[in-house]
Write a structure and sequence with these properties.
Elements (H helix, E strand, L loop, with lengths): L2 H19 L9 H15 L5 H7 L11 H10 L5 H7 L16 H6 L16 H8 L12 H32 L8 E6 L7 E8 L8 E4 L7 E3 L6 E6 L3 E9 L2 E10 L5 E4 L6 E2 L2 H4 L4 E4 L1 H6 L10 E7 L9 E9 L12 E7 L2 E7 L9 E4 L2 E4 L16 E8 L2 E6 L2 E7 L7 E9 L2 E10 L2 E5 L3
Antiparallel strand pairs: 1-2, 2-5, 3-4, 3-6, 6-7, 8-9, 8-11, 10-21, 11-20, 12-17, 12-21, 13-14, 13-20, 14-15, 15-16, 17-18, 18-19, 21-22
Helix pairs in contact: 1-4, 2-4, 4-5
Length: 466
């Protein structure tokens, strides 16, 4: 794939995202628009792109570096493709119009076809040498045989269109031949072993055998996040990776562009875990700094010990409780928790809080905010979602200076969200039911949790201060 091709695909991808979010031209987007887009991409793909990365992509921040493959994978998946490669394979550049009155052919497509012709640069006042000789030859009847500038342009456009179409047919043919090859999964092996059973940070050693691959295009995808997609040589058999955050990961071995093996990997938190999010290594808090008898919480005094201020931008406080929950399923449970966030000054005025119910290869992201800030919320649950832009999410507003009770009921894929005893929203999710494996809470700077539990029939899973 040439550089021009890649740039063409990236521009088309960004334009498709602009059309999908429907916020107007990206040149007019504010910082909060890019923040919302980052949240939507994370909710849809599990990949957290930074605001600065998105701004560089759209040219709001100068950059001399091409976007990483991780970023491109996330953009493609946000648009509904499996990955960037799939997007490129299914991408169809605009076919140039050959009739007068249609838009001129895309210059980059013409140049990529190596025609050397720029039809837009040709004008009526600058005929080619061949045209000039024909026009001055007295043996020709100028009233019937001299090509007009319009006809010359039409011929050139037909020529460019034909060459471009032939090039597209050739590329499609090559890709079709490649798709005929499918590696046999039985000829490969893949497994993963944690260095420690519980907690983070943790090292995972992947054992694999890709020696039967036809090429050396073999990768291990370590999470749903393609930033952990790592090339592994076919003549090697081990790869080690660090995990700094808890989670459930469907790791994969990709051989010659096809997933041949997968291995479910759960990094547990060993009870409640509190941290301040940083990239790539978070700041882990001590148990005694957030375990408070009947609740879990962090206040500004804890942040002060780490030299962290709430101003001008509050740090991203996260609580995790990732563990084995046996047969608890996403389509059959009750969940309840109480949350509080006392910080509402400066950039924290809206008290945006998120409660995440983590599932095997899926997730639910439930927002809470101050009552005055419910016009900028996003709800996501196992393939379904709602945005304040086109849905009433005001029920997720509350006074977070006091304890707020969030209740979620799931039955036959229908989810009912209740805040302080009042129904806030309900939806039916499309994804296949899967196991529930843990919780995550996101606070701006400070926050607290208590009285958290799941129920499945008569069985109760208590998330106390263990």
């Amino acid at each position: 794939m040439t550089t021009n091709d890649e740039q063409l695909h990236i521009r088309a991808c960004l334009q498709a995202i602009e059309a999908q979010v429907n916020w107007g031209p990206a040149k007019d987007w504010s910082n909060s628009d890019f923040e919302k887009l980052a949240e939507q991409i994370a909710a849809a793909t599990g990949v957290q792109l930074s605001v600065s990365t998105l701004k560089r992509l759209w040219g709001k921040v100068a950059s001399t570096h091409a976007p990483s493959l991780t970023t491109l994978h996330a953009l493609a998946r946000y648009l509904g493709y499996a990955d960037w490669r799939t997007y490129q394979q299914q991408f169809r550049p605009p076919v140039p119009a050959a009739m007068e009155g249609h838009q001129a052919v895309n210059k980059e497509v013409v140049q990529d076809a190596n025609t050397g012709i720029d039809p837009v640069a040709e004008t009526e006042s600058s005929p080619t040498a061949a045209d000039a000789s024909t026009a001055t030859d007295p043996s020709f009847d100028n009233t019937t045989t001299v090509p007009t500038p319009t006809r010359r342009r039409q011929r050139r456009r037909w020529l460019v269109a034909g060459i471009t179409l032939l090039l597209l047919i050739t590329i499609i043919g090559i890709m079709s031949v490649k798709r005929l090859y499918r590696p046999d999964p039985s000829r490969f092996s893949f497994s993963a072993n944690k260095v420690v059973t519980e907690g983070v940070p943790n090292t995972v050693i992947f054992q694999y055998d890709a020696s039967a691959a036809e090429t050396d295009s073999n990768y291990i995808v370590q999470t749903w996040d393609f930033s952990r997609k790592t090339h592994v040589p076919k003549d090697k058999h081990a790869h080690s990776a660090m995990y700094y955050y808890p989670g459930f990961f469907r790791t994969k071995l990709i051989v010659d562009g096809q997933v041949v093996k997968h291995h479910d990997l759960q990094i547990t938190s060993d009870g409640w875990l509190g941290l301040l999010e940083n990239d790539p290594v978070p700041t882990y808090l001590k148990n005694e700094e957030y375990l408070r008898g009947d609740s879990i919480g962090v206040d500004s005094s804890v942040l002060l010990r780490y030299g962290v201020s709430l101003y001008p931008q509050a740090p991203r406080l996260r609580f995790f409780n990732q563990r084995d929950l046996d047969t608890l399923m996403s389509d059959r449970f009750e969940f309840e928790t109480k949350v509080k966030s006392n910080f509402s000054q400066g950039a924290g005025a809206c008290q945006f809080v998120q409660v995440l119910i983590q599932c095997k290869d899926d997730i639910m992201i439930i927002p809470l905010a101050a009552k005055t800030c419910t016009g900028d919320l996003n709800l996501y649950a196992c393939g379904a979602g709602a945005r304040s832009k086109d849905a009433d999410l005001s029920g997720f507003g509350a006074d977070l200076h006091e304890w707020v009770t969030l209740h979620v009921s799931s039955k036959n894929r229908e989810l009912v969200f209740t805040v302080n005893g009042k129904e806030a929203y309900r939806l039916t999710f499309p994804n296949d039911p899967t196991g529930v494996v843990g919780l995550q809470y996101r606070f701006p700077g400070v926050g607290a949790i208590k009285d958290t539990w799941f129920r499945d029939g008569d069985r109760v899973y208590d998330f106390g201060t263990r």
